[in-house]
């Protein structure tokens, strides 16, 4: 098992989520991808495929 940390928080889950918009750019291909990172503190961070932070949420444990 691997352990990854962001500051003093540990990464508990990762999800790579391909997204498609309403536009038809390429049939069957995602328009862009986001990465969801779950942390041990209850935070969920969402990043673009080029590491731009989109959103940070705190889920109460």
From TrEMBL:
Residue ranges annotated for the Rab3-GAP regulatory subunit N-terminal domain, each copy included: 8-55
Protein name per the record: Rab3-GAP regulatory subunit N-terminal domain-containing protein
Highest taxon above the source species: Eukaryota
Organism of derivation: Dreissena polymorpha (Zebra mussel)
One Pfam family of this chain: RAB3GAP2_N
